[in-house]
Design brief:
The protein has 3 helices and 9 strands, in the order H-H-E-H-E-E-E-E-E-E-E-E. The protein is globular and about 40 Å long. Strand 3 and strand 4 (122-125) form a beta hairpin. It has 198 residues and is α/β, with parallel strands linked by helices.
Length: 198
């Protein structure tokens, strides 16, 4: 009879250890997921926006903010936008998301006055000036630049009060070049990003 109690006690002990091990594995997986998310482009933009808002001079938080495209500090071959313009556009979209989630009033100046219905899509946004409202009322611009470097991209954003053009806040972060594409698919030559595959 003593042996049955002993075996039962050992089984309970092993079951408890297994449960602790499973909990530790789940916590470890959650930490890895958080780390992965923070290393995405969106995660780095969130850090930028938090830095911007936490160090800002006082401003009217009910005022309208227009978020501009984040542009390169250097243009390539005289072109207005480089081949990797998608980086600046994605940073702009992420900034708009976080600024809106922070409760600020964001002006979507790319919204068309009416919806364009096409065979393959319903278009509500445009970057063509002919499709947009002629005048937009805004109190602040939020814009910035990025500079490609060897293994990271330096991103600067700033909040500007208009019409005075006074910078109320600024933030800088280094975004790893593999935050948008995996390291094996991206190389930098002559200050330009080259994607080797998808």
């Amino acid at each position: 009879m003593k042996y049955y109690y002993l075996i039962a006690a050992i089984c309970l002990l092993l079951l408890g250890c297994s449960s602790i091990s499973n909990n530790e594995t789940q916590e470890s997986n959650q930490e890895l997921t958080k780390e992965y998310q923070s290393n995405t482009l969106h995660g780095h933009v969130e850090k930028l926006v938090r830095q911007l808002l936490s160090t800002s001079q006082p401003f009217d938080t009910s005022g309208n903010i227009a978020v501009g495209t984040i542009l390169p500090t250097e243009h390539n071959n005289g072109q207005q936008l480089p081949a990797h313009a998608s980086l600046g556009l994605q940073i702009q979209e992420s900034v708009m998301t976080f600024i809106t989630q922070a409760g600020l009033s964001v002006v979507e100046y790319k919204a068309m006055p009416s919806i364009k219905i096409k065979k393959q899509a319903d278009e509500m946004l445009s970057r063509d000036i002919k499709d947009l409202t002629e005048s937009i009322s805004t109190d602040y611009f939020l814009t910035g630049t990025y500079t490609l470097q060897e293994s990271s991209t330096l991103v600067n954003i700033r909040l500007i009060k208009v019409p005075e053009n006074i910078i109320l806040a600024a933030a800088t972060d280094y975004v790893p070049n593999d935050a948008m594409w995996s390291a094996t698919k991206v190389t930098i030559k002559n200050n330009q990003i080259y994607r080797n595959g998808y």
